[in-house]
Model the fold of this input.
Amino acid sequence: MPSMDIPEDIWLQVSQYIDENDLRSLLSVNSVFFRVAMDARYRCIDVNSRDLPTERLLCRILDKEVARRVRVLRLLFNNVKSETRTKSSSPLKHFKQLGHVLHGRHHRSARSDRLPSPLTFSVVLDVLISALPNMINVEELYFDSWDLPSEYDIHSFFIAAWSSFGRTVRKVYLSGHLEGYCQLLNSTPSFDSVRDVRFEFVNPLRTTNTITTVPPDTIISFVNHLAPQLYALKVWLWTTLDLSPFFDSMDSLSCLESLSIRMSFNQSLSNLPALQRFLHNTSSTVQKLELRLNPLGANFNPSIEDSLGQWFTSCLRDEQIFSYLRKLDIYPTNLPSSTDILVNVIERSSHHLEDMSVRDRYFHDDEVSTIVNVLSTCNKLVSLRLNIWRLDAKLFDLLASKLPQLLRLALYVGDVVTEHTGSMESFIADMEDRKYENWKLYDIGLWQSGNGMNHAGYMTSLARSIPSVKSFWGTGSTKCQR
Done:
């Protein structure tokens, strides 16, 4: 039967079962595959440098039919340290330059063995600005300005972007130094539809030893403008920036459901109660919380963590904080009291907790037993990530009996012990004597030193003992890593 006689909705159904890479090779089969493949190819684009792939991409998105397919636009403005932003000539000239590169029309000169120099960042930026009017369907914007000198003026880019998709974009992810943020925020984007904002602060190109206070007329005003409509907020900090004014001056985030905070507790909060008040004010709506406040220098001076432990204790005196969480990702300190802190947090959220992750703190056997016992009161818990000093078969006896409803388990292991010789190879023999028929676990991952553990067949031995396991390391497959 000719393909044109098959209804379009059938072709659409078929296309959903074809791998994206294979789909691209079927562009010429019919108009349905062409549209689906083009949508997949240009749904997410990265403009990250002045290399040839970026030039090819810019040339393509000058085509209106390509530009309108872009849903996710990721911009990494890098390699511009030595340039001065200048007014350039017409975009058509830039298009021709790109076309020459794409079609191999540059030839080696008889006087030189070198190919022509790559296009300047100014030209690349101007071509991108020329394509923006047709990018009317962008839903997610990633903007990374970590390598953008503060004197480099890209105001015209932002004006073109907001004119095209400023009122329709739903997610805005910003990463860079504070000066780079100021250019974007001073361009007064409307962002009427934004529901998800993520900030990631890094050091500027020219660093100083001073702690910078967030200007209230930039970041704070921007978030407060969006406060009534935000469902997700992420604030990550990799530099010496005091965010106390940010948390202290925030308006009510009445719709906020997801909150992610990562920063150095002793470097980023001059006013400790500010963050606690912020958590209190958002506790009735926030269901997903990432709270990783690892103090800087604690590896060399553990006493630095004392103030963080005291802060957690203060937070736990507030009956609202941690009460309605469905998902929690936390660093509870490495203090002796950290197990108690974690137990109290779990008890506070036990009626709702579904997903628990504990970071950067390894627990001994007795501590693991305490934590698992309190987690057994969380009837909705289906996912657990935990760092443990020792892995042995008895741990799985405990997990299977106390958390039978668990679906996903990730264990980060310091060492492996066994019931017999103590050798790592004996772990498989220990597991062969066990069968957890009633455990619902679907996915399991063992990690050590940042890598998946498959030494001597650890994962396959676990799969034999836990018949419900169909996935390793969250891959959806039980194929072992190599």
Notes: The mean pLDDT is 82.
